[in-house]
Amino acid sequence: MSKQQRERQHRRHKVQGRNKSITSRSKATKDGRRLRDPLPNLPEEIWYHIHSLMPMEDSARTACVSRTFLRSWRHHPYLILSNRTLGLKQNASGKGDVWAFTTKIDQILKNHSAAGVKTLELDVFECRDLNACYLSDWLQIAITPKIESLTLELPSKYEEEYNFPCSLLFGGNGNLIRHLHLTYCAFRPKVGIGCLRSLTKLHLSHVHISEEDMLQMIDSKAPNLSTFDFTGDNLVQFSLESLQVKNLGMACLKEINFLNYSITKLPYMVPNLETLTLSSYNEMVNTPTIAARFHHLNYLEIYLDACLFPEYDFLSLGSFLDASPVLETFILSRAMKFDPVLEDFGDASNMRQLPKHKYESLKDVMIYGFCSAKSMVELTCHILENAISLESITLDTVNDWEDEEDLGRCSVAPARKSGECCYLDSVSILEANKGLMAIQKYIAAKVPSTVQLDVRGPCSRCHSLEPSRYEVKC
Protein backbone atom coordinates (compact mmCIF):
# COMPACT_ATOMS: atom_id res chain seq x y z
CA MET A 1 0.00 0.00 0.00
CA SER A 2 1.42 3.36 -1.04
CA LYS A 3 1.79 6.32 1.28
CA GLN A 4 -1.06 8.17 -0.44
CA GLN A 5 -3.37 5.13 -0.09
CA ARG A 6 -2.56 4.88 3.61
CA GLU A 7 -3.36 8.59 4.09
CA ARG A 8 -6.70 8.25 2.27
CA GLN A 9 -7.60 5.21 4.37
CA HIS A 10 -6.66 7.07 7.56
CA ARG A 11 -8.87 10.02 6.61
CA ARG A 12 -11.75 7.65 5.73
CA HIS A 13 -11.50 5.88 9.08
CA LYS A 14 -11.39 9.24 10.87
CA VAL A 15 -14.57 10.43 9.14
CA GLN A 16 -16.30 7.12 9.79
CA GLY A 17 -15.41 7.37 13.45
CA ARG A 18 -16.86 10.85 13.64
CA ASN A 19 -20.06 9.74 11.91
CA LYS A 20 -20.32 6.74 14.17
CA SER A 21 -20.31 8.95 17.27
CA ILE A 22 -23.42 10.82 16.11
CA THR A 23 -25.26 8.00 14.31
CA SER A 24 -24.54 5.02 16.51
CA ARG A 25 -28.21 4.41 17.16
CA SER A 26 -30.01 2.75 14.26
CA LYS A 27 -33.01 0.60 13.49
CA ALA A 28 -33.06 -2.87 11.93
CA THR A 29 -35.28 -3.60 8.93
CA LYS A 30 -36.81 -6.97 8.07
CA ASP A 31 -33.96 -7.85 5.70
CA GLY A 32 -31.37 -7.17 8.36
CA ARG A 33 -30.18 -3.81 7.06
CA ARG A 34 -29.65 -0.95 9.48
CA LEU A 35 -31.23 2.50 9.04
CA ARG A 36 -29.42 5.44 10.57
CA ASP A 37 -31.22 7.53 13.21
CA PRO A 38 -30.52 11.18 12.31
CA LEU A 39 -30.49 12.27 15.97
CA PRO A 40 -27.10 12.85 17.58
CA ASN A 41 -26.28 10.43 20.37
CA LEU A 42 -26.31 13.00 23.16
CA PRO A 43 -26.93 12.38 26.85
CA GLU A 44 -30.61 12.71 27.73
CA GLU A 45 -29.90 15.57 30.11
CA ILE A 46 -28.63 17.63 27.19
CA TRP A 47 -31.77 16.88 25.17
CA TYR A 48 -33.87 17.89 28.16
CA HIS A 49 -32.01 21.17 28.38
CA ILE A 50 -32.37 21.85 24.66
CA HIS A 51 -36.13 21.23 24.82
CA SER A 52 -36.46 23.42 27.90
CA LEU A 53 -35.26 26.34 25.77
CA MET A 54 -37.99 25.75 23.20
CA PRO A 55 -41.53 27.18 23.46
CA MET A 56 -43.86 24.66 25.05
CA GLU A 57 -45.97 24.20 21.90
CA ASP A 58 -42.89 23.49 19.75
CA SER A 59 -41.52 21.00 22.24
CA ALA A 60 -44.86 19.18 22.30
CA ARG A 61 -45.01 19.00 18.50
CA THR A 62 -41.59 17.36 18.28
CA ALA A 63 -42.67 14.53 20.62
CA CYS A 64 -43.94 12.51 17.67
CA VAL A 65 -40.58 12.59 15.90
CA SER A 66 -38.75 10.13 18.13
CA ARG A 67 -38.78 8.52 21.54
CA THR A 68 -35.91 10.79 22.52
CA PHE A 69 -38.02 13.87 21.81
CA LEU A 70 -41.00 12.30 23.53
CA ARG A 71 -38.98 11.81 26.72
CA SER A 72 -37.63 15.35 26.38
CA TRP A 73 -41.16 16.76 26.05
CA ARG A 74 -42.21 14.93 29.20
CA HIS A 75 -39.35 16.66 31.00
CA HIS A 76 -40.25 20.13 29.70
CA PRO A 77 -40.22 22.24 32.89
CA TYR A 78 -42.48 25.10 31.76
CA LEU A 79 -46.17 24.35 31.18
CA ILE A 80 -48.53 27.10 30.02
CA LEU A 81 -51.94 25.47 29.68
CA SER A 82 -54.91 27.32 28.21
CA ASN A 83 -57.40 26.92 25.38
CA ARG A 84 -55.04 28.87 23.15
CA THR A 85 -51.88 26.87 23.84
CA LEU A 86 -53.81 23.60 23.62
CA GLY A 87 -55.29 24.57 20.25
CA LEU A 88 -58.89 24.55 21.49
CA LYS A 89 -61.56 26.99 20.35
CA GLN A 90 -64.53 28.53 22.08
CA ASN A 91 -68.01 27.55 21.01
CA ALA A 92 -70.78 29.97 20.01
CA SER A 93 -71.63 30.70 23.65
CA GLY A 94 -68.06 31.76 24.40
CA LYS A 95 -67.27 28.62 26.41
CA GLY A 96 -64.46 26.19 25.79
CA ASP A 97 -64.80 22.44 25.24
CA VAL A 98 -64.54 21.27 28.84
CA TRP A 99 -64.09 17.57 28.00
CA ALA A 100 -61.26 18.18 25.53
CA PHE A 101 -59.65 20.70 27.89
CA THR A 102 -59.65 18.41 30.92
CA THR A 103 -58.54 15.39 28.92
CA LYS A 104 -55.52 17.16 27.46
CA ILE A 105 -54.43 18.71 30.74
CA ASP A 106 -54.89 15.39 32.56
CA GLN A 107 -52.64 13.66 30.07
CA ILE A 108 -49.98 16.38 30.02
CA LEU A 109 -49.69 16.72 33.80
CA LYS A 110 -49.66 12.97 34.43
CA ASN A 111 -46.95 12.50 31.81
CA HIS A 112 -44.92 15.23 33.51
CA SER A 113 -45.49 13.97 37.03
CA ALA A 114 -42.34 11.87 37.15
CA ALA A 115 -40.01 14.70 36.18
CA GLY A 116 -41.94 17.54 37.82
CA VAL A 117 -42.39 21.08 36.50
CA LYS A 118 -40.79 24.40 37.43
CA THR A 119 -43.52 26.64 36.03
CA LEU A 120 -47.24 25.98 35.74
CA GLU A 121 -49.61 28.55 34.26
CA LEU A 122 -53.12 27.15 34.34
CA ASP A 123 -55.70 29.37 32.63
CA VAL A 124 -59.20 27.92 32.90
CA PHE A 125 -61.04 31.25 32.70
CA GLU A 126 -62.95 30.21 29.58
CA CYS A 127 -63.98 26.79 30.97
CA ARG A 128 -66.71 28.09 33.24
CA ASP A 129 -68.33 24.66 33.68
CA LEU A 130 -65.17 22.93 34.83
CA ASN A 131 -65.59 20.75 37.90
CA ALA A 132 -63.42 22.13 40.70
CA CYS A 133 -62.21 18.66 41.67
CA TYR A 134 -60.05 18.64 38.54
CA LEU A 135 -58.22 21.73 39.76
CA SER A 136 -57.17 20.15 43.03
CA ASP A 137 -56.01 16.99 41.27
CA TRP A 138 -53.92 18.99 38.80
CA LEU A 139 -52.38 21.13 41.51
CA GLN A 140 -51.51 18.06 43.55
CA ILE A 141 -49.56 16.71 40.58
CA ALA A 142 -47.82 19.99 39.78
CA ILE A 143 -46.94 21.35 43.22
CA THR A 144 -43.78 19.49 44.15
CA PRO A 145 -40.49 20.62 45.73
CA LYS A 146 -39.31 21.53 42.19
CA ILE A 147 -41.97 24.12 41.37
CA GLU A 148 -40.84 27.75 41.19
CA SER A 149 -43.76 29.60 39.59
CA LEU A 150 -47.51 28.96 39.88
CA THR A 151 -50.31 30.85 38.10
CA LEU A 152 -53.97 29.93 38.48
CA GLU A 153 -56.53 31.89 36.43
CA LEU A 154 -60.10 30.87 37.28
CA PRO A 155 -63.55 31.99 36.10
CA SER A 156 -65.17 34.67 38.27
CA LYS A 157 -67.75 32.23 39.66
CA TYR A 158 -64.97 30.41 41.56
CA GLU A 159 -64.29 33.50 43.66
CA GLU A 160 -66.38 32.08 46.50
CA GLU A 161 -66.57 28.44 45.39
CA TYR A 162 -63.00 27.22 45.13
CA ASN A 163 -60.61 26.95 48.07
CA PHE A 164 -57.02 26.87 46.96
CA PRO A 165 -55.38 23.82 48.63
CA CYS A 166 -52.86 25.77 50.72
CA SER A 167 -51.60 22.61 52.40
CA LEU A 168 -49.88 21.66 49.13
CA LEU A 169 -47.50 24.60 49.57
CA PHE A 170 -46.18 23.40 52.89
CA GLY A 171 -43.94 20.50 53.86
CA GLY A 172 -41.19 21.67 51.54
CA ASN A 173 -43.28 21.94 48.36
CA GLY A 174 -43.29 25.73 48.46
CA ASN A 175 -39.66 26.28 49.35
CA LEU A 176 -38.61 27.21 45.81
CA ILE A 177 -41.72 29.14 44.75
CA ARG A 178 -40.70 32.61 43.61
CA HIS A 179 -43.88 33.66 41.79
CA LEU A 180 -47.45 33.03 42.98
CA HIS A 181 -50.39 34.37 40.94
CA LEU A 182 -53.95 33.55 42.03
CA THR A 183 -57.19 34.86 40.52
CA TYR A 184 -60.82 34.34 41.64
CA CYS A 185 -60.45 31.86 44.47
CA ALA A 186 -60.34 31.57 48.25
CA PHE A 187 -56.82 31.57 49.69
CA ARG A 188 -56.75 30.82 53.42
CA PRO A 189 -53.32 29.70 54.61
CA LYS A 190 -53.51 28.89 58.33
CA VAL A 191 -49.93 29.96 59.04
CA GLY A 192 -49.64 32.88 56.60
CA ILE A 193 -47.30 32.80 53.63
CA GLY A 194 -44.10 33.33 55.53
CA CYS A 195 -43.11 29.74 54.75
CA LEU A 196 -42.66 30.72 51.10
CA ARG A 197 -39.14 31.90 51.81
CA SER A 198 -38.16 32.22 48.14
CA LEU A 199 -41.24 34.23 47.11
CA THR A 200 -40.33 37.36 45.13
CA LYS A 201 -43.59 38.08 43.23
CA LEU A 202 -47.13 37.86 44.64
CA HIS A 203 -50.20 38.59 42.53
CA LEU A 204 -53.66 38.33 44.11
CA SER A 205 -56.78 39.23 42.14
CA HIS A 206 -60.28 38.90 43.62
CA VAL A 207 -59.11 36.55 46.33
CA HIS A 208 -61.01 35.68 49.54
CA ILE A 209 -59.05 35.05 52.71
CA SER A 210 -61.79 34.81 55.34
CA GLU A 211 -65.07 32.94 55.44
CA GLU A 212 -67.23 36.07 55.43
CA ASP A 213 -65.38 38.82 53.61
CA MET A 214 -63.09 39.59 50.74
CA LEU A 215 -59.38 39.69 51.44
CA GLN A 216 -58.92 42.28 54.20
CA MET A 217 -55.41 41.76 55.51
CA ILE A 218 -52.29 40.48 53.80
CA ASP A 219 -49.51 39.44 56.13
CA SER A 220 -46.34 38.28 54.44
CA LYS A 221 -43.01 37.64 56.08
CA ALA A 222 -41.41 36.45 52.85
CA PRO A 223 -37.99 38.11 53.11
CA ASN A 224 -37.38 38.40 49.37
CA LEU A 225 -40.77 39.70 48.23
CA SER A 226 -40.05 42.55 45.80
CA THR A 227 -43.25 42.68 43.68
CA PHE A 228 -46.80 42.78 45.00
CA ASP A 229 -49.85 43.18 42.75
CA PHE A 230 -53.38 43.34 44.15
CA THR A 231 -56.80 43.71 42.53
CA GLY A 232 -60.05 43.62 44.50
CA ASP A 233 -63.24 45.43 45.36
CA ASN A 234 -62.11 47.04 48.58
CA LEU A 235 -58.96 48.44 50.07
CA VAL A 236 -56.79 45.97 51.95
CA GLN A 237 -54.32 46.43 54.74
CA PHE A 238 -51.05 44.67 54.19
CA SER A 239 -48.05 43.89 56.29
CA LEU A 240 -45.03 43.14 54.14
CA GLU A 241 -41.31 43.11 54.52
CA SER A 242 -41.69 46.63 53.21
CA LEU A 243 -38.05 47.54 52.75
CA GLN A 244 -37.73 44.85 50.05
CA VAL A 245 -40.85 45.76 48.04
CA LYS A 246 -39.78 47.63 44.90
CA ASN A 247 -42.80 47.14 42.62
CA LEU A 248 -46.41 47.67 43.67
CA GLY A 249 -49.66 47.53 41.69
CA MET A 250 -53.06 48.12 43.31
CA ALA A 251 -56.58 48.36 41.89
CA CYS A 252 -59.57 48.83 44.20
CA LEU A 253 -62.81 48.70 42.25
CA LYS A 254 -65.20 49.93 44.93
CA GLU A 255 -62.91 52.04 47.09
CA ILE A 256 -63.68 55.76 47.16
CA ASN A 257 -60.77 58.21 46.89
CA PHE A 258 -58.14 55.52 46.47
CA LEU A 259 -55.57 57.97 45.12
CA ASN A 260 -55.96 60.04 48.28
CA TYR A 261 -55.15 56.97 50.36
CA SER A 262 -52.22 56.01 48.14
CA ILE A 263 -50.37 59.30 48.28
CA THR A 264 -50.83 59.75 52.03
CA LYS A 265 -50.09 56.17 53.18
CA LEU A 266 -47.84 54.38 50.71
CA PRO A 267 -44.70 56.53 51.14
CA TYR A 268 -44.55 55.30 54.74
CA MET A 269 -45.71 51.72 54.15
CA VAL A 270 -43.43 50.88 51.21
CA PRO A 271 -40.67 53.52 51.28
CA ASN A 272 -38.38 51.91 48.69
CA LEU A 273 -40.85 51.66 45.81
CA GLU A 274 -39.38 51.98 42.32
CA THR A 275 -42.49 51.30 40.23
CA LEU A 276 -46.09 52.07 41.21
CA THR A 277 -49.30 51.35 39.28
CA LEU A 278 -52.62 52.60 40.70
CA SER A 279 -56.14 52.09 39.37
CA SER A 280 -58.94 54.17 40.86
CA TYR A 281 -62.59 53.80 39.99
CA ASN A 282 -64.25 56.40 42.20
CA GLU A 283 -62.42 59.61 43.03
CA MET A 284 -64.64 62.15 44.79
CA VAL A 285 -61.95 64.53 46.07
CA ASN A 286 -58.83 66.02 44.55
CA THR A 287 -55.40 64.59 45.27
CA PRO A 288 -53.83 66.40 48.24
CA THR A 289 -50.36 67.87 48.55
CA ILE A 290 -48.22 66.00 51.06
CA ALA A 291 -44.84 66.32 52.70
CA ALA A 292 -43.91 62.63 52.37
CA ARG A 293 -41.84 61.48 49.40
CA PHE A 294 -41.43 58.43 47.17
CA HIS A 295 -37.66 58.79 47.27
CA HIS A 296 -36.88 55.93 44.86
CA LEU A 297 -39.91 55.94 42.53
CA ASN A 298 -38.93 56.11 38.86
CA TYR A 299 -42.10 54.74 37.18
CA LEU A 300 -45.67 55.87 37.97
CA GLU A 301 -48.84 54.79 36.16
CA ILE A 302 -52.32 55.98 37.15
CA TYR A 303 -55.57 54.73 35.65
CA LEU A 304 -58.79 56.68 36.28
CA ASP A 305 -62.14 55.10 35.52
CA ALA A 306 -65.25 56.96 34.47
CA CYS A 307 -66.60 57.31 38.01
CA LEU A 308 -64.89 60.63 38.69
CA PHE A 309 -67.00 63.46 39.92
CA PRO A 310 -67.37 66.02 37.09
CA GLU A 311 -65.25 68.69 38.77
CA TYR A 312 -62.28 66.40 39.42
CA ASP A 313 -59.10 68.44 39.21
CA PHE A 314 -56.51 66.67 37.05
CA LEU A 315 -53.98 69.33 37.98
CA SER A 316 -54.04 67.97 41.55
CA LEU A 317 -52.23 64.86 40.23
CA GLY A 318 -49.18 67.08 40.18
CA SER A 319 -48.91 66.15 43.87
CA PHE A 320 -47.67 62.71 42.81
CA LEU A 321 -45.00 64.33 40.65
CA ASP A 322 -43.96 66.64 43.47
CA ALA A 323 -43.63 63.64 45.79
CA SER A 324 -41.41 61.70 43.36
CA PRO A 325 -38.07 63.49 42.95
CA VAL A 326 -36.43 60.81 40.76
CA LEU A 327 -39.47 59.92 38.63
CA GLU A 328 -38.55 59.16 35.01
CA THR A 329 -41.81 57.87 33.49
CA PHE A 330 -45.37 59.10 34.14
CA ILE A 331 -48.40 57.47 32.49
CA LEU A 332 -51.98 58.69 32.97
CA SER A 333 -54.87 56.71 31.48
CA ARG A 334 -58.45 57.88 31.62
CA ALA A 335 -61.69 56.17 30.68
CA MET A 336 -63.56 58.08 27.98
CA LYS A 337 -66.97 58.94 29.39
CA PHE A 338 -66.77 62.65 30.00
CA ASP A 339 -69.25 65.18 28.68
CA PRO A 340 -67.59 66.36 25.45
CA VAL A 341 -67.53 70.09 26.09
CA LEU A 342 -64.62 72.07 24.71
CA GLU A 343 -63.80 74.61 27.36
CA ASP A 344 -62.73 78.00 26.07
CA PHE A 345 -60.64 79.44 28.88
CA GLY A 346 -58.91 82.16 26.94
CA ASP A 347 -55.14 82.57 26.86
CA ALA A 348 -52.44 81.21 29.13
CA SER A 349 -53.02 83.93 31.70
CA ASN A 350 -56.27 82.26 32.72
CA MET A 351 -54.61 78.95 33.55
CA ARG A 352 -53.76 78.03 37.11
CA GLN A 353 -50.19 77.29 38.00
CA LEU A 354 -48.85 75.14 40.79
CA PRO A 355 -45.85 76.34 42.81
CA LYS A 356 -42.67 75.92 40.80
CA HIS A 357 -41.29 72.43 41.32
CA LYS A 358 -38.67 71.25 38.86
CA TYR A 359 -38.88 67.61 37.79
CA GLU A 360 -35.25 67.00 37.00
CA SER A 361 -35.51 63.30 36.17
CA LEU A 362 -38.82 63.11 34.28
CA LYS A 363 -38.13 61.99 30.70
CA ASP A 364 -41.26 60.31 29.31
CA VAL A 365 -44.91 61.31 29.77
CA MET A 366 -47.92 59.55 28.24
CA ILE A 367 -51.54 60.62 28.66
CA TYR A 368 -54.14 58.27 27.18
CA GLY A 369 -57.71 59.52 26.99
CA PHE A 370 -56.57 63.15 26.93
CA CYS A 371 -59.59 65.44 27.04
CA SER A 372 -60.35 69.13 26.66
CA ALA A 373 -61.04 69.68 30.37
CA LYS A 374 -59.24 72.79 31.59
CA SER A 375 -57.53 70.97 34.47
CA MET A 376 -56.18 68.35 32.03
CA VAL A 377 -54.67 71.09 29.87
CA GLU A 378 -53.26 72.76 32.99
CA LEU A 379 -51.62 69.52 34.15
CA THR A 380 -49.99 69.04 30.75
CA CYS A 381 -48.71 72.61 30.61
CA HIS A 382 -47.43 72.29 34.17
CA ILE A 383 -45.39 69.23 33.18
CA LEU A 384 -43.99 70.92 30.08
CA GLU A 385 -42.90 73.94 32.08
CA ASN A 386 -41.23 72.02 34.91
CA ALA A 387 -39.86 68.78 33.44
CA ILE A 388 -36.46 70.13 32.47
CA SER A 389 -35.15 66.75 31.23
CA LEU A 390 -38.27 65.77 29.27
CA GLU A 391 -37.56 63.82 26.09
CA SER A 392 -41.01 62.78 24.84
CA ILE A 393 -44.67 63.37 25.55
CA THR A 394 -47.56 61.39 24.07
CA LEU A 395 -51.05 62.88 24.10
CA ASP A 396 -53.63 60.37 22.91
CA THR A 397 -57.25 61.51 22.90
CA VAL A 398 -58.34 57.88 22.55
CA ASN A 399 -57.70 55.33 25.30
CA ASP A 400 -57.38 52.39 22.92
CA TRP A 401 -57.23 49.30 25.13
CA GLU A 402 -56.88 47.15 22.00
CA ASP A 403 -53.50 48.73 21.19
CA GLU A 404 -51.34 46.46 23.30
CA GLU A 405 -48.14 47.40 21.45
CA ASP A 406 -48.84 51.15 21.82
CA LEU A 407 -48.44 51.74 18.08
CA GLY A 408 -51.40 54.08 17.55
CA ARG A 409 -54.50 53.69 15.41
CA CYS A 410 -54.68 50.94 12.81
CA SER A 411 -54.95 53.52 9.98
CA VAL A 412 -51.38 54.68 10.72
CA ALA A 413 -50.01 51.47 12.28
CA PRO A 414 -51.11 48.54 10.08
CA ALA A 415 -48.57 46.28 11.79
CA ARG A 416 -50.42 46.22 15.12
CA LYS A 417 -51.28 42.66 16.06
CA SER A 418 -54.65 43.50 17.59
CA GLY A 419 -56.09 44.56 14.23
CA GLU A 420 -58.87 47.11 14.34
CA CYS A 421 -59.03 49.88 16.93
CA CYS A 422 -61.29 49.80 19.97
CA TYR A 423 -64.94 50.69 19.55
CA LEU A 424 -65.93 54.30 20.24
CA ASP A 425 -69.45 55.67 20.24
CA SER A 426 -70.20 59.01 18.60
CA VAL A 427 -69.95 60.93 21.89
CA SER A 428 -66.47 59.55 22.60
CA ILE A 429 -65.32 60.33 19.06
CA LEU A 430 -66.57 63.88 19.44
CA GLU A 431 -64.77 64.17 22.78
CA ALA A 432 -61.53 62.89 21.24
CA ASN A 433 -61.72 65.42 18.42
CA LYS A 434 -62.23 68.24 20.90
CA GLY A 435 -59.19 66.98 22.80
CA LEU A 436 -57.16 67.36 19.60
CA MET A 437 -58.38 70.94 19.24
CA ALA A 438 -57.35 71.70 22.83
CA ILE A 439 -53.86 70.31 22.16
CA GLN A 440 -53.50 72.45 19.07
CA LYS A 441 -54.81 75.60 20.75
CA TYR A 442 -53.21 75.49 24.20
CA ILE A 443 -50.36 72.96 24.29
CA ALA A 444 -48.51 72.46 21.00
CA ALA A 445 -46.78 75.84 21.12
CA LYS A 446 -45.48 75.16 24.66
CA VAL A 447 -43.59 72.00 23.71
CA PRO A 448 -39.82 72.70 23.63
CA SER A 449 -37.97 71.91 20.43
CA THR A 450 -35.94 69.27 22.28
CA VAL A 451 -39.07 67.30 23.22
CA GLN A 452 -40.72 64.83 20.87
CA LEU A 453 -44.50 65.41 20.77
CA ASP A 454 -46.70 62.49 19.68
CA VAL A 455 -50.34 63.50 19.21
CA ARG A 456 -52.89 60.79 18.48
CA GLY A 457 -56.57 61.03 17.77
CA PRO A 458 -59.46 58.93 16.43
CA CYS A 459 -58.76 56.44 13.65
CA SER A 460 -59.71 57.67 10.18
CA ARG A 461 -60.80 54.13 9.37
CA CYS A 462 -62.61 53.02 12.55
CA HIS A 463 -63.77 56.27 14.17
CA SER A 464 -65.18 58.39 11.38
CA LEU A 465 -68.16 60.73 11.81
CA GLU A 466 -70.19 62.73 9.32
CA PRO A 467 -68.88 66.31 9.61
CA SER A 468 -72.25 67.78 8.75
CA ARG A 469 -73.85 66.00 11.69
CA TYR A 470 -71.16 66.51 14.34
CA GLU A 471 -69.74 69.96 13.83
CA VAL A 472 -67.06 70.95 16.34
CA LYS A 473 -66.79 74.61 17.25
CA CYS A 474 -64.21 76.33 19.42
UniProtKB/TrEMBL annotation:
Residues 39-77 form the F-box domain. It comes from the Eukaryota. Residues 1-37 are annotated as: Disordered. Residues 8-17 have a biased composition (Basic residues). Residues 28-37 have a biased composition (Basic and acidic residues). Residues 213-460 form the At1g61320/AtMIF1 LRR domain. The lineage of its organism: Eukaryota, Viridiplantae, Streptophyta, Embryophyta, Tracheophyta. Pfam families: F-box, LRR_At1g61320_AtMIF1. This is F-box domain-containing protein.
